[in-house]
Structure formats: C-alpha cells, structure tokens
C-alpha cells in the first residue's frame, strides 16, 4: 500500500511539475533560512555549556544606584577576590580574571630581536589558579599547576603555532609580555570551540599582572571598578547564594563604606551572563525575533503550498470521484495526499540543506559580532530538523488533504466542485493576506533600520570625525613621556600631519568610558551623579575641534591641575550659566583639587544609544594610551606610511595600527548594519516566496478563466480591462494585508527605536515604501501570465474544451 501511495504521488508530481517546482523551491528557501536562524540562536544559547560546572558557576558583578537610575557592569574592584576569600574562607573556589585585549608578545630569538606577535582575534587574560578548577580545558602539554608562580603563562594551540610554528616542545619556552616582561610557558591547551565568551589565547598568572600593569591589584581602592576585571566563584553547602545575598550589605559596609546602599555586588549565574543584555550580553529579544522571522518564512512557504494545493484540488476532483466509486475510503485518500505532501517536503528539505551549507559559508564570511556563528551537529539538531519537517508536512498538507478527501463522488464526477463556499471569504484569500502582511512587516522593518543607520552616520556629533586617526601606544605601567614627546616631534614635522594629541581612551564614541564620584567646590557631600572622566593633553580640544562656550582650554601639563567640563556637567550641578562653574574646584579621591577653567559645548562622547553624560577632562600623562593625529593632506596612504616609520622608530617593539575615527564610529553600529543586511535578505526571500505562490495561483486562474477571457475578447474587452480582471482581487488583498502589517510593524519598530536616545521618527514614507514594494512585486508576477492570457487568440480558447 505504501509503495502504491509513493508511486501515485510521484506520478502526480511529474504531471504537475511546475507546481511541484514552485512548492519545492519555496519550502526549500523557507526551511533553509529557518535552519540558519536556528543554528545562530542555538549557538548563543549553548555558549560555554561544554564546561562541566557550567550551571554551578557564579560571576560577581557591580551594580551602582543613584538618583539618575541604575548602572550595571561585569567589572568588579581589583581587591574583591582577596576580600571575599578573607571574609568567607568556606568559599574554596574563587578566581579573579583580568582581561588583556589584543595581547602583544615577543618570541625571543637566539639571534636577532625576536618575533613580534599581536593577537587581534582573541584576547588574553591574567588569571588566578582557581580559574582552572572552575572551567574545563583540554591540555596538550603541561598544565595550569605552575600558574601560582609569577611570570608564567599557558597558551592555546593556535597561539603556539603563531609563536613557534608547532604545538609540541613548547612548554619551557620563554615569551616577553608587552615586549618587556619575561614569562615562561608552562602549558598548552587545545583550541576553543567558537561558542565561548572565554576565548583567551594566552593566560598569565595573576601575580604577573603587577609587573605588566604597575601597582595593581593590591593598591587599587575598593571603590574603583574596571569593566575588564572579573570574579568567578563556586558556591557550596557551607556558603550558598542565599548566604551571600544576606551578607552582601555588611561586606560593602566593611570594604566600601562610602558607598553603602549605593553599590552592590550581585552574584549572577554564569549560565545567564551571555544572554544578559543589562550586563552587555546578547539580547534574548533579538534572538527570539530572528527565530520568529524563521518561522514566518516557513509559514509563508507553507501558505504557498496550501494555496496551490487547494487550487489544484479542483483539477483532481474527477480523480477523487473515481477513486471513491472504486472503493477508496476517506482515510486512504487523506493519506494519499499527505504522502504527496511528504514527498515534496522531503525534496524541499534536501534543497534546504544545500541552502544551509551555502548560507553558513556566507555567514562566516560576511556576518560579524553576535551574528557570527559556527554550526555544531548534535542529536538535538537532528531531532529539531525532524520536528520541523514533520511540522511543515502537517502545516502544508492537512487542510488540502481534508478538502480533497472530503469531495462527494457525485459532485466531483459532475465537475460542480468549489473550494470556496458561496459568498464567503476564502481560506486561500486569508492565506494570501498573511503572506503579503509578513512581507510588508519585514520591508517596513528594513526601512526603519536603514533610516536609523543613516541618521546615526550623518548626525552632527559635536566633534571632528573626518581626517583624524588614532594609534594605540604600548601598554606600560607608566607611559614614557620622553618617547611621547619624541613621537609628537617626529609626527608634526611630516607634511601631511596637522596636530598630535594624547588621551586616555580612544576617540569620542569609542565605547570606552570611566565613571567616578566627585565633590564640587565647597559642598560637603558628594554629588548624586557620577560624571565620566578622561585624561587628555592640551591639544585634544583642537584636534577634535571641540567648542569652548566659556573660559579657556587646559594648559600643557603632565599632572592633573585643571579641568574642562561639558554643559551637562554644569547643568547637573544646578548652575544656571556656564560661567558660574569657572574658578570652582572638582574634588576627586587620589587627585589634587581640579580648577574648572573651561566649559565645552556638549558633544556625543558616547554612542547614540545613550544620551550625553556629565564629563570632565584633565591632564594626566601617565594615563595616555592613544595618540590622536589630525591629517591635513588628502593623500592619506603616503602620510600613514611616513607616520608608521616615525612610530616604529620610537616604539620598535609595538605595532603601528592606525584607525580612522569616522570608521571607528561606523563600527560602533556594526550590529545594526548586520541586522539591516539580514532583514534585507529575509524580506527579499519572503517576497520571492510570495511571488512564486502568486505565479502559481495566476497560472491556475488563467487555466480556469481561459474560456471566459475568450468570450470577453469577442465582446470587445481591452487588454487593460482583462489585466484588471486578474489584478483587482490581489490589489484588494494587498490593501487588507497593509492594514494589518502597518500598525503591527509600527509597534515592533517603535520598541526597537526605544533602545536609542537619538532616533528617527517613523513617517508615512516608510509605510508607502512597503506598500509600493508589495504592489510592484504582485503586479509584475500577476501581469506576466495575465498578459499572455489577454493576448491569446480567442478562437483558440473557445475551441478548447
């Protein structure tokens, strides 16, 4: 019986190959896109789950509260781990970690200066030995046992190959960290899987941190929090999470008494941190939105199948009638049609696997950030694919199978069947509306994202962003002021260079921020707000063309004596005029009182997702880590080549890696750009699937109305009126779909724009674009077949029975 079902199904597919091709292609596209989205979502939900203690590890974080709201970060104070162990010795698994971005190492050579290695793809870290009791690593040689000693490191197999060209016989070799601190390799571990937030290519002992970063961590004040410093712990029966939550206030009162009831250190499950948006993780809502898009695309393809199958049902009415007269039962006919559906879905799944394979390669090449993923096969994937295929078979096949199996033999043989009850709104029309609505929602989303990106790129930020490059200086405990002066002198003599400035962080909008607490002038209490702080030299204001609205610029100095503030700083102080702040003092722990000598016009020092924060700038030469260079020549390549020569002359053990400020700002919104690209792709796929379905329906309608068209032409109907005959029904359905899609997409995209402090207003042009796109796609699809039908010789169509 099963073989007979398959044989008949194959014959029907061959007989109606054009419909089968449309269905296989549409379902293949829908399933293929759904598989790609599933792989991305699964990748993020499985991040770091290969660690055996994944569900038992907790990560401490910092939460700061003020009158302005709440701020959270994964960072904690440097002395936090030691304080935690001292106060709670029953916690025997506490590990501190300090991230080390783009680690620079030198492999000493027997002859010569050695080989410089800078890992831009993976970061490094300084870790305590307990770190390896919490997280699992596969050791190819050596191990982490010796990391309790200073000047020791473990490296990944990938880093070993970069440094030595091999992974064997590496233990015992020496490296120079930051080109100056000697360290001995004590272990080599296997390369990571992609889905980890702990992808460190080199990990040095915690005690080595003091040599590479100066007096840290012991001498750091407890109220100084760095976002790159982390602490992990494994709670136990003697000290649980509930115990920590109960004793946390007393811990803060002991170690950070000034900030009691303002600073908290929650212990968050490590398993939740990757998908914790409040701690800078991946947005669950974004992943769920992508998953919804995947299911919508599968739904769109299934709608195609249902529409075409119910349309084809009328052609097969006599076949059903004959089968019933010959003794076929309703259940046998039902399973016959379900078998045909299964055959088409299986073929579509094979096509989808090919699309998935190509799509994964393209994703690996073009997607970045949170949208970049690697696919790892597991039995769970096979189960999900099986469920998806079964769901598509049921979704696509149930309704048409019930319709065709329910035909009455007499009515079917008399050819008086219809799949639409008289005077009612057909299921097929409803499904077409759903297709158009899905396409329009995606198009509106694409338009909003694209307009927001254009707005952010073109918005005046209040500082110069063209023809300015930044170069990172070597990270050392105390910057060498003589070298900085030498590089400035060499660079400013170049014909294409205008000015050189030094600063603590990168350019405005670089994403790097540092906040602190201050006391203003003669006020007795600290301010309720925490301003951002940055160290700059006296040329910074001129390089970035910042505008002074009161007072003057900073005087050249290597130490903190003066400060300039922004307008928002003045407003938060409650002062009415910028001049009211001049001559007053900012008091900050560990710094001498800073006299406010100037007020800057507000500029967007952070990205446009957040507003302008209060800010003060002062001079601390030992805290400069970037050179900011304004260019006066349009021949950037020649100028950069000359700058590289000057840089290498001063910093021979580092890398010259210039970055244009406008490009860095553009990279800040890479996630939105990638999302725009994905929505663009999915909207195109949705329109393509919908257009293929329309093409199939029009093909069927032309066959049904062939004689009617001939009669109309004989009676004098024009080609235009015949075209309207086909297009008017779809025009009505498009307008109904638009009435559904417009408010729904407005609600969704308004929620997305709420993530930005500076954003566009969704205007009518966005909705008109969506309507125009779907009308154009539908008109082209429908007109292709309807024009052929309208130009056909009426005599031929009237003779055909």
TrEMBL record:
It comes from the Bacteria. The keyword Phosphoprotein does not apply. It is found in: Cell membrane. Residues 21-213, 430-623 form the MacB-like periplasmic core domain. GO terms for cellular component: plasma membrane. One of its GO terms (molecular function) is transmembrane transporter activity. The chain crosses the membrane at residues 20-41, 286-314, 334-359, 380-407, 427-449, 678-703, 733-754, 760-782. It is a multi-pass membrane protein. Keywords: Cell membrane, Membrane, Transmembrane, Transmembrane helix. The keyword Transmembrane applies. Residues 292-404, 680-793 form the ABC3 transporter permease C-terminal domain. This is Putative ABC transporter permease yknZ. It comes from Fibrisoma limi BUZ 3.
């Amino acid at each position: 019986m099963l073989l007979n079902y398959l044989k008949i199904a194959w014959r029907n597919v061959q007989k109606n190959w054009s419909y089968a091709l449309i269905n296989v292609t549409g379902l293949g596209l829908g399933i293929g896109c759904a598989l790609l989205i599933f792989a991305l979502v699964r990748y993020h939900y499985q991040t770091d789950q290969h660690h055996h203690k994944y569900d038992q590890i907790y990560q401490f974080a910092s939460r700061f509260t003020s009158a302005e709201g709440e701020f959270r970060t994964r960072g904690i104070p440097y002395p936090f781990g030691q304080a935690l162990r001292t106060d709670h010795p029953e916690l025997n698994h506490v590990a501190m970690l300090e991230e080390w971005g783009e680690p620079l190492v030198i492999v000493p050579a027997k002859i010569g200066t050695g080989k410089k290695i800078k890992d831009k793809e993976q970061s490094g870290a300084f870790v305590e030995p307990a770190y390896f009791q919490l997280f699992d690593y596969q050791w190819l040689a050596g191990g982490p046992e010796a990391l309790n000693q200073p000047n020791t490191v473990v490296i990944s197999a990938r880093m070993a190959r970069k440094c030595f060209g091999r992974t064997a016989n590496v233990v015992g070799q020496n490296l120079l960290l930051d080109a100056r601190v000697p360290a001995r390799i004590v272990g080599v571990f296997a390369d990571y899987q992609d889905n980890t937030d702990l992808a460190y290519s080199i990990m040095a002992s915690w005690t080595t941190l003091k040599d590479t970063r100066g007096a840290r961590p012991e001498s750091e004040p407890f109220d100084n929090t760095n976002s790159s410093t982390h602490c992990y712990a494994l709670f136990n029966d003697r000290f649980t999470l509930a115990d920590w939550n109960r004793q946390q206030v007393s811990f803060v009162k002991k170690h950070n008494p000034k900030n009691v009831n303002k600073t908290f250190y929650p212990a968050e499950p490590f398993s939740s941190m990757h998908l914790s948006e409040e701690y800078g993780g991946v947005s669950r809502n974004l992943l769920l939105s992508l998953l919804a898009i995947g299911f919508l695309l599968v739904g769109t393809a299934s709608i195609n199948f249902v529409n075409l199958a119910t349309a084809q049902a009328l052609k097969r009415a006599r076949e059903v009638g004959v089968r019933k007269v010959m003794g076929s039962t309703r259940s046998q006919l039902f399973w016959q049609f379900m078998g045909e559906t299964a055959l088409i879905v299986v073929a579509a799944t094979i096509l989808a696997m090919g699309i998935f394979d190509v799509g994964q390669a393209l994703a690996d090449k073009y997607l970045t950030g949170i949208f970049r993923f690697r696919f790892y096969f597991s039995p769970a994937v096979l189960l999900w694919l099986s469920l998806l295929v079964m769901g598509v078979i049921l979704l696509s096949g149930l309704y048409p199978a019930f319709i065709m199996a329910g035909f009455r033999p007499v009515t079917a043989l008399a050819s008086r069947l219809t799949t639409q009850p008289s005077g009612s709104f057909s299921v097929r029309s409803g499904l077409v509306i759903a297709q158009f609505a899905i396409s329009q929602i995606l198009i509106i989303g694409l338009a909003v994202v694209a307009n927001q990106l254009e707005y952010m790129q073109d918005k005046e930020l209040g500082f110069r962003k063209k023809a300015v490059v930044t170069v990172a200086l070597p990270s050392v405990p105390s910057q060498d002021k003589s070298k900085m002066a030498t590089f400035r002198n060499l660079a400013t003599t170049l014909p294409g260079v205008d000015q050189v400035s030094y600063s603590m962080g990168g350019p405005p909008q670089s994403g790097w921020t540092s906040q602190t607490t201050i006391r203003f002038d003669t006020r007795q209490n600290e301010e309720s707000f925490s301003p951002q702080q940055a160290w700059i030299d006296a040329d910074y204001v001129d390089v970035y063309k910042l505008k002074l609205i009161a007072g003057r610029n900073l005087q050249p100095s290597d130490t903190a004596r003066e400060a300039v503030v922004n307008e928002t700083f003045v407003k938060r102080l409650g002062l009415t005029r910028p001049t009211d702040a001049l001559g007053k003092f900012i008091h900050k722990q560990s710094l001498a009182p800073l006299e406010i000598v100037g007020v800057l016009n507000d500029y967007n020092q952070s990205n446009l997702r957040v507003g302008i924060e209060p800010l003060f700038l002062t001079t601390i030469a030992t805290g400069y880590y970037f050179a900011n260079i304004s260019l006066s020549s349009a021949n950037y390549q020649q100028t950069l080549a000359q700058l590289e020569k000057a840089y290498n002359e001063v910093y021979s053990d580092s890398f010259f890696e210039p970055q244009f400020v406008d490009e860095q700002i553009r990279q800040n919104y890479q996630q939105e750009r990638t999302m725009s690209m994905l929505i663009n792709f999915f909207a195109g796929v949705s329109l393509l699937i919908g257009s293929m379905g329309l093409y199939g329906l029009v093909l069927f309608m032309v066959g049904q109305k062939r004689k009617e068209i001939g009669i109309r032409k004989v009676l004098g109907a024009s080609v235009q009126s015949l075209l309207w005959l086909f297009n008017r029904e779809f025009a009505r359905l498009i307008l109904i779909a638009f009435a559904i899609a417009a408010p729904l997409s407005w609600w969704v995209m308004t929620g997305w724009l709420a993530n930005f402090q500076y954003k566009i207003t969704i205007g009518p042009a966005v909705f008109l674009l969506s309507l125009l796109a779907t009308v154009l796609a539908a008109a082209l699809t429908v007109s292709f077949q309807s024009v052929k039908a309208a130009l056909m010789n009426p005599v031929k169509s009237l003779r055909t029975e």
